[in-house]
Write a structure and sequence with these properties.
Elements: H1 4-12, H2 17-24, H3 28-40, H4 53-60, H5 62-65, H6 76-82, H7 90-103, H8 111-125, E1 138-143, E2 148-151, E3 158-167, E4 174-179, H9 184-198, E5 204-206, E6 214-216, E7 223-224, H10 226-234, E8 238-239, H11 251-266, H12 276-292, H13 302-310, E9 326-331, E10 337-340, E11 343-346, E12 355-360, E13 364-369, E14 372-378, E15 387-388, H14 396-403, H15 406-416, H16 418-430, H17 434-451, H18 453-466, H19 472-481
Parallel strand pairs: 1-5, 5-8, 11-15
Antiparallel strand pairs: 1-3, 2-3, 3-4, 6-7, 9-12, 10-11, 12-13, 13-14
Helix pairs in contact: 1-2, 1-3, 2-3, 11-12, 15-16, 16-17, 16-18, 17-18, 17-19, 18-19
C-alpha cells in the first residue's frame, strides 16, 4: 500500500518529489497525484496520530476505496460483438464505456480492469477472443512442406501430391486439399475450393511470396500474378503477401501446417492411394476430425468457433464461381496471328510486332494490349496447327482475296457492264475446276485496274463479236492492239452468187477460203 503519511511528511519538509520517490519506493507520478489531492482536500502535515494510510486513501482517493460492486460493469456480450467490426478495439470501447458512465454519474472500471473482465468472459464463454484478429478479416494460405503420394496402377511409381493449407486466424478453422502440382492453376483452384468450403470470402488473403501468386516480392508494392489478382477481384477480396522471411505474418497458416503434418499427413502415411480423388476423400475425413477436435484450454472446437464466431463476418460468395484462366505474353507475327498451345489466332493487323497479353480459359482466348481487349476467339480444339482468322482483322487487300469467289466476280461484272458479265459467265463455264476459272476472272479484274473498266468492257464487246466464248487471252490481245478504241461496225455482207458447178465433186477456191 502507498505510504501516504510518509509522502505528506517529507513533502512538508521540502523534500523534492524525486527524493520522496526514492525514499518511499513509489513513482514520481504517484507522489505528484498524492500531493495534488492533498492540496485539493486541504489535507496537510502534521496529521492526527490516529489517521492511517487507509484513512488517507479513503479521503484522497475514494474511487480506489470503493468496491468493484459499485462500479458499472461493462456489457461483455456487447463488447464481443463490437470487436468483430473493422477498426474497433478495446481502447475505443473503453473510452465509450467511460463516457457513458460519466453521463450517468456512475463509476467506471479502469482500462486494465475493463480488459481483464472481458478476457475472463471470452475465455469462459466464447471460443475466440477478438483482440488481435477480427472474424472474417484474414485467410492465411500456404503449401505444406511435406507431401503425400499416390501410386500408379500400371508402373507402381509413387506420384507426389502437394498439400494446400488455409486457415482463418480468428477461429483457426482449416481447409486442406491435395494437388498433383503447385502451378498457378492448382493454386487458384485451391482458393476457389477453400471459399466454397468456408461458404464465404474473407476480406484479405495472406499468401507466401511464391511465384504462382506473387510475380515480384516487395515490402511496399508487390506485383501479384494476373490470374491470382483477377480471381481476388472476382471474389471482392484483397491479396496482401507476407513479408519475405517473416513467417509470423501468417502464423496461423504456419501453425496449421505443423498440425496438419501430424494430424493428416502422418496419420495417413501407411495407407496407399491410387487416385487423387481417393486421397482427397481420406484427407477430407481427417480434416473433419481435426476441425471438430476440442480445444485444450478453452471451450468448443475450430468448427464451433467458426460457425458461431466467424462465419457471419465472411463476405457472401458471388453468384458464379471464378473460371480459371491462364495468362501468357506473345508478340504478334507478320501474319497478324499469335500462337496459343500450338494453335493460331488472329488479331487486328495494326498490332503486328506488338507485345500483347493473352488470357486463356476453358473455352475462350482473349488478347489484350495495355489492358484493352483487342481480340476474342473461341478456343480451337482438335489437331494442332489450326488457324482462326477473323475477316475484320485482315488488311483490305487480304480481305478481298478471302472474299473472292464466283458470287463476288459476278457482282463485280454486273457493276462493270453487261459485256463484262457475259464474258465472266463464259469464263466460269469454260473451266471444270472453279479455282482455275476464278484465276482467269481475277486476271480480268486486274486488266480493269490496269487499263480502266470502260476499256475492258469495250474489249469484251468486241470479243463477243467474234466468239461466244471469249478468253482472257483474247481480251488481252484486243487491249494490247488497241482494237477496243476502234468504232464497232456491223458490216452486212451481201450473199454471194452461187453458180452451178457441173463437176459436183470438184472443190473450188471458196471451199478452202480463197478467192476466185
Amino acid at each position: 500500500m502507498i505510504k501516504y503519511r510518509e509522502i505528506l511528511r517529507l513533502h512538508a519538509q521540502g523534500i523534492s518529489q524525486r527524493g520522496i520517490a526514492s525514499s518511499t519506493s513509489n513513482s514520481r507520478t504517484t507522489i505528484r497525484e498524492v500531493v495534488k489531492r492533498s492540496e485539493e482536500r486541504n489535507t496537510k502535515w502534521p496529521l492526527d496520530e490516529g489517521v492511517t494510510d487507509q484513512d488517507l486513501q479513503e479521503l484522497l482517493f475514494p474511487e480506489k476505496h470503493a468496491s468493484f460492486d459499485f462500479r458499472k460493469k461493462p456489457d461483455c456480450e456487447y463488447i464481443h460483438k463490437e470487436l468483430a467490426k473493422p477498426g474497433v478495439n478495446l481502447t475505443l470501447l473503453w473510452e465509450e464505456y467511460s463516457l457513458n458512465c460519466q453521463s450517468n454519474e456512475e463509476i467506471p472500471y479502469s482500462y486494465r480492469q475493463f480488459c481483464r473482465v472481458y478476457h475472463d468472459y471470452a475465455r469462459k464463454t466464447k471460443a475466440t477472443m477478438r483482440i488481435k484478429r477480427k472474424p472474417g478479416e484474414l485467410l492465411e494460405v500456404d503449401w505444406a512442406g511435406k507431401t503425400m503420394s499416390i501410386k500408379d496402377e500400371l508402373t507402381g511409381e509413387n506420384i507426389p501430391v502437394y498439400i494446400f493449407v488455409s486457415a482463418l486466424p480468428c477461429s483457426q478453422y482449416a481447409y486442406v486439399e491435395g494437388f498433383l502440382s503447385m502451378n498457378a492453376e492448382s493454386w487458384i483452384s485451391a482458393h476457389i475450393h477453400a471459399f466454397q468450403f468456408y461458404r464465404g470470402v474473407p476480406r484479405v488473403i495472406v499468401p507466401d511470396n511464391l511465384k504462382t501468386g506473387v510475380v515480384k516480392a516487395s515490402k511496399y508494392e508487390p506485383i501479384i500474378h494476373k490470374g491470382y489478382q483477377e480471381m481476388a477481384e472476382h471474389y471482392h477480396t484483397t491479396i496482401v503477401p507476407a513479408r519475405v522471411r517473416h513467417p509470423k505474418d501468417k502464423a496461423s497458416a504456419e501453425s496449421t501446417v505443423g498440425h496438419i503434418s501430424t494430424w493428416i499427413i502422418a496419420s495417413l502415411r501407411n495407407q496407399e492411394f491410387f487416385s487423387l480423388k481417393e486421397l482427397n476423400d481420406a484427407v477430407k475425413g481427417k480434416l473433419a476430425e481435426f476441425n471438430n477436435k476440442p480445444f485444450q484450454k478453452k471451450q468448443g472446437s475450430r468448427h464451433t468457433a467458426f460457425k458461431e464466431e466467424e462465419h457471419f463476418a465472411l463476405t457472401p460468395l458471388p453468384a458464379a464461381s471464378y473460371e480459371i484462366a491462364t495468362w501468357q505474353v506473345a508478340t504478334v507475327q507478320y501474319d497478324y496471328h499469335i500462337e496459343v498451345d500450338k494453335m493460331f489466332y488472329s488479331v487486328p493487323y495494326d498490332y503486328v510486332k506488338y507485345v500483347v497479353d493473352i488470357r486463356v480459359n476453358r473455352s475462350i482466348v482473349e488478347v489484350f494490349y495495355k489492358g484493352l481487349r483487342i481480340a476474342s476467339h473461341k478456343k480451337i480444339k482438335g489437331r494442332l496447327g489450326q488457324f482462326e482468322t477473323l475477316p475484320e482483322h485482315m488488311p483490305k487487300e487480304h480481305k478481298q482475296y478471302i472474299d473472292f469467289d464466283t458470287s463476288y466476280v459476278r457482282q463485280w461484272g454486273e457493276k462493270a457492264g453487261p459485256n463484262m458479265l457475259i464474258t465472266i459467265n463464259s469464263i466460269l463455264a469454260s473451266y471444270r475446276v472453279e479455282k482455275q476459272a476464278l484465276k482467269s476472272c481475277l486476271g480480268l479484274i486486274k486488266l480493269a485496274d490496269q487499263h480502266s473498266v470502260d476499256r475492258v468492257e469495250k474489249a469484251c464487246e468486241r470479243a463477243l463479236m467474234y466468239t461466244t466464248r471469249p478468253t482472257l487471252t483474247s481480251i488481252k490481245t484486243i487491249l494490247k492492239n488497241g482494237q477496243d478504241k476502234l468504232p464497232v461496225t456491223l458490216e452486212k455482207e451481201s450473199p454471194k452468187e452461187v453458180k452451178p458447178n457441173p463437176y459436183g465433186f470438184t472443190r473450188g477456191a471458196e471451199y478452202y477460203g480463197g478467192k476466185k
